[in-house]
Design a protein that fits this description.
Order of helices and strands: HHEEHH
Number of helices: 4
Helix content: 55-70%
Radius of gyration: 19 Å
Shape: elongated
Largest sheet: 2 strands, antiparallel
Length: about 100
């Protein structure tokens, strides 16, 4: 969505996606916490202008979190650093 546009109403989106209003509300709250939208009193949620550097930082944080989880799982499974690197390289190759 473009900057300044409003997200669909919480109830409307929940009905369209056939999910609970609570789930939709939580998703909108997460978007607001990430700084992607702003709640406008009586109007709904409006898409914020996006700073490309801020978006990059958010993506980096998500990547770091995912890699940290993978490292912890590898340790629990007894996978060596070398094996973990090989897995990572193989996954990268598949994505190219």
């Amino acid at each position: 969505m473009k900057q300044g546009e409003y997200l669909p109403s919480i109830r409307g989106l929940a009905k369209e996606l056939k999910i609970s209003v609570i789930t939709t509300m939580k998703a909108y709250e997460l978007l607001q916490e990430e700084g992607l939208v702003t709640a406008m009193q009586g109007k709904g949620f409006q898409v914020n202008p996006q700073d490309s550097e801020m978006l990059r930082e958010q993506h980096m944080r998500h990547i770091e979190d995912g890699l940290t989880d993978a490292i912890k799982a590898a340790k629990r499974a007894g996978i060596s650093r070398k094996e973990l690197r090989e897995i990572f390289e193989a996954l990268l190759a598949v994505q190219e």
